[in-house]
User: Fold this.
Amino acid sequence: MVSDFLPKCTGPLEAGYEPAGWDGATLREMLEASEKLTEETGCYYGVSELALKETDPIRYEKIFSKLRGGLVNARETAMNVSASPIVQEIGELCFALYTPEGDSVALSTGIIVHVHTMSDAIKFMVRNDYEINPRIRRGDIFSNNIPKIGDVHNADVQTFVPIFWEDELVGWAGGVTHVTDIGASTPGNVPVGPITSYEDGLDLTANKIGECDTVFRDHEIRCELGVRTPMFWKLDERCRIAGCHMVRDAVERTIREEGIETYKQFIREAIEDGRRTFIQRVKELLIPGRYFAPTFNMLLFAGERGLPEYAAVDTMSQAPVEMVIGPAGEFHISFDGANRWGYHSFNCPPSAMQGAIWVLLTQTMIPNDKVNDGAYFATSSNFPPYTISNATAKEAATGAAWGYLIPAFTGLIRNISRGVFARGYVEEVLSSYAMTMNALQGGGKDQYGNDTGLLSFELSCVGGGARGIADGLDYGAAMWNPEGDMGDCEVWELIMPLLYLGRGVKPSTAGPGKYRGGSGFQSVYAIWKTVDLVMQNAGDSGCFPSPGIFGGYPSASGYRHNVLGTDLLDRFRKHRAYPSREDDPADSEITACCDGEHLFDRRTMNYPYRMKHGDIYYSWYRGGGGLGDPLEREPDRIEADLDGDYLLPRYAASVYGAVAECDPEGFWRVDPDATARRRREIREMRARRAVPVSEYLASEKARVLEGRIAKETRRMYNESLELSTWWREWFLEFWGLPDDFRFEEGGE
Ligand code: MN
Assistant:
């Protein structure tokens, strides 16, 4: 009976305390013992034999299924408690079960990015002696959203409920949802605006927010006042608590059925099992060696009024992603050489980095296995202090940590792809996934006159990277939520003061290749029935953060096209054409069908600016990187791309060498013989243009020495030269530069 385990609160705090851990130990003692055992034996918790799994494998799998089933059930049920489309439509939530020390045993479906971040938050509470103050008791509720404690970005709000059996804490249920607004200095949930942590919004620093299964009233008041969308906040919180309580029920049920000693044995074995499985997968899928894939993104804030001089700069981020695979299945990832954290909201503490590692490894290396912290114990990482990959400075803003993670971790995918390709698993190869951008974000008043902070989560359907044997998935999912969905237009219109004028495929977003990347899509909106709204674009521009692989091209970089002071309402009245798409920015439907002040440029990262009823906001979502030489793409695939609006006709010739013609019915035909001739000519032209590598390097070296590279790049490289001895030596040796080399900064 669940009622047997209802919380029993016994009045005022006693002077002393009864340790909550096992056999009279405190949780902190348990954590220290666990770390010592793991360190000394190399096995999680010193578990050298999987006794339960080996003697009774069916029972072992049954226990795992009961717990995993409980977690998935909690997610599927609790998501209906929330009213936020981000949670209900897109599924931005997950639940997990942890050991008393905070190691993950099992995880639900959903945003699996949090397999380890919630572990960090629980360990933070244990290490900070929460057991003594504010105490950890049956029926307590805790909440955290600080990435420096354990999270990816501040909008991922976590709830924790300790699980007791008799007088012992036997585990933790954790749940996370991505909230609609976090109360940051700029509206929305991935705020691109805060330049220090003091502007990141509501801070839940692993706080106790409830007792006796009831949320404290003062916490509710604080959140009501602290965020722009308190109704969504409250229902999201109820959703997390309901889910955690369902997980607690599932654990109690399992203990009643299997016995507490078996449960205690099982949670240790399950993690050690996860560790061994991961090592086995590494040995099966990858070849030992060192893999290196640097990636870059641009952060453009120069000229933004309202930002101090040191924050209003154009700069770049660097992620020199190194993956080292050892002969015994060792898996090491290093960001040595990353540039400095900065006065923007894209900084990543280590917990955010672990989140990104896990969301990708569970989609590549261990898609079918037990996902828990066992895999974490099987890997090692190096995120050098002071870099953007280890931003623990108290003032470092983290509200949009994904702005670094998303571009950075295409490097991990390309590293893994080279490994699996070398092993012969061609079908497992992936090119870079797409950036989940443009992030349509803003806030002010909604169409009902209420305060709002908004970000359209249709961005969770961008293109997948090209595969080794097929094109990437078109508008499939985001790298951070493999179950992502773009949501219905009508649902977004319900909660945002925006009216869809059109939604459709966006041509030529995907990276070309023998196999192209998955395509992105586009949405054209009218700002609708709001009296006060600011909007911003948050995207990539000026560089290519989704590179191709094996000769494939990168996907298209960003641009902005919004229109202020339009004649849209007049066009509606007069039944004149209005823009519903923009297939080709060089021949724009938005320009042709709408007068007004066109913000049509490559500034895709903007501080919020005011937009009014009838203005046009254009949001197009990126495609994935390509794979293989575009000249090897089969002609009928190019025909299908042209017919399906995936490719602009002018690129069929220039990129693919295709000789294509549109027939009177509007279908495209690619002439195979003429195409073969044209491709021969292109190959000959390539050969004529080619120079020996030594000549190319010499000319590039001259550019480096003379500083003839973009000012953003010079600034980024100087930061890396200062922060990393290893990277500095590598860079100087590669280019043959003097020991005291440093780029001149400034200028253009
Ligand atoms: Mn999130």
Notes: Residues 297 and 543 are 6 Å apart (CA to CA).
